[in-house]
Amino acid sequence: MLRFKEVTRQDVAALRQTAAKLPVLNLNSASAWEDVLLRNEELMRRMSHLNSYISCLASADGRNEAYQQEEAELIRDRAELVKVRIELLRAFKDVPDEVFTVLLGKTSLLGAENYLRRLREEANRAMSSDKEVLATDLGIDGIQAWGQLYNTVSSKLQFEMVFPDGTEKILPISQRRSLLDHPDRRIRAAAFNGGNTAWQSIEDMTASALNAIAGTRLTLNRHRGVDHFLHIALFQAAITRETLDAMFDALFANLEIPRRILRFKANLMGRQSLAWYDLGAPLDLPQESPRLWHEAVATVGASFMRAYPALGAFFQQEVIGKKWIDWEPRDGKRPGGFCTSSMLNKESRIFMTYNQALGDVLTLAHESGHAYHGFLMRETRPFARAYPMTLAETASTFAEQILINGLLDDPGVGDGFKALMLDIELGHGAIYLLDIPVRYQFEKSFYEERASGPLSVSRLRELMTATQRHVLGEVLEGGGEDPYFWASKLHFYITGLTFYNFPYTFGYLLSRGLYNMFARESTSFLPKYEEFLRLAGSDTAENVVKKTIGADLKNPDFWADSIRSLEKPLIELQTLALKVIGPGDKQSRRSN
Known about the structure:
- This protein is mainly alpha-helical.
- It has a domain at 2-141: Oligopeptidase f, N-terminal domain (Butyryl-CoA Dehydrogenase, subunit A, domain 3, Up-down Bundle).
- 66% of the residues lie in helices and 3% in strands.
- The chain has helices at residues 2-20, 30-60, 65-92, 97-104, 113-123, 129-140, 143-156, 176-179, 185-201, 203-224, 229-237, 241-253, 256-268, 293-307, 309-320, 358-376, 389-408, 415-450, 457-472, 485-488, 502-521, 526-534, 541-548, 556-564, 567-580, 583-588, and strands spanning 158-162, 168-172, 325-326, 338-341, 348-351.
- Helix 3 runs antiparallel to helix 6 (129-140), helix 7 (143-156) runs antiparallel to helix 10 and helix 17 runs antiparallel to helix 18.
- The protein is globular and about 80 Å long.
């Protein structure tokens, strides 16, 4: 790894030196810039491998100082490659159409057209090269350092968990998530309160980090002539504001559907409303025995094989057969889960913590969907692999839906288990259509206020609780808000992407729409779906979907149909719940 890193560093430095000597892109320099682009693409391939390798190590053992040091060095190495990109921005800024057309016509750049168009768009709002280099250098010890500080502190954070029987344990914060999904409300409440006490202990640090990250972005936007903070988020998501507004217009017009899911959950729990920590909790249903890891693997594999044999074979042969997953619970692991892919060895790795909950089984399917997306794109050139997050979450949630429906269609599965799976499906719907919009609306309001100066801890708490109350309405019980959600949600502290939230709702509803097509067309739909995944980085999200699937993402009806498709499983669960739980049973569980 050290040798690989050093050679890569030398090649990056040499390429930057070469690019810096070239004039801007014109007919005479087009061939020279073509060579720079191709060498840069190869370095992107190698850097992706190094990034995946180090991020896996650092996530698996967040307390290892050697890994932390490598992460810090990686930030600097990536920054040096960004400086090559800055030279490309200089070359492409204000380039005439006829010159750009000549470059697009190069045989060696076939398939890179979308990358080059985006590069040109970004170049036209870039600062001068010296300012962009300065911003990159300052970012290492600035915005990225704040994000790294959050990662380091959160991976070491612990909280006191007091169980209903009086047992007290000090647990890593990474284990809080599964406890918030526990069927016993007393355990959820204890994990929520204990966790928030821990987050409160570092509230000043997290608030400083959040303000610094947003402040840096707003300052750079001003110097780059970007007049609205959402423009960058939309560019990164490869969608237009028209598409984003179409999705949220449909969502808020149909907000009662996810609220009905929560009302039903509250009723089954013997309550009028729910607390924030109830959102991801399972319904008050008879619980299945915890699944051991090998049982979870068998469950996911069987569902994949029944509905989508190619995905099932990939899961069994690659993901499981080659041991691509770090799944065990242990101290020092960072919270969360992810899938990372290397464009060099064309493999993926999955990071998660398996705590024997059904939600963890869904996470296994979710991250395996990401890995399958990488597998389908393994021969795609790096310039066409940079797909936006709006499409990145589609394959993962599509895989979740395959797992859920596969289990629901299994004749050997009883009513109790089917009710549990429907509960998970609907619970995810409530999260994507209520929780994620809370994150988006909070961040949007936060950025609007941050333009006038940093927000205090008390204002951040106030803004978060007000946003939760606005989106969830009366289904959120009084005092049941989570005032520290801005601190505990690591997505707010990701420095490489802004607004790391609405693409989840986008991907969820898109994948639900695609799955509805799959249900109607059966296996004849899969070639179109796989082509959609392969082309995810080759155009805007709207154009990729239009070309492969035929759907119009600017039409609110597409999104509304996906939201309304939750009504059928809600009716099914309401019917099953009457069979699985009698009135007396429900009454007896109210104390929990």
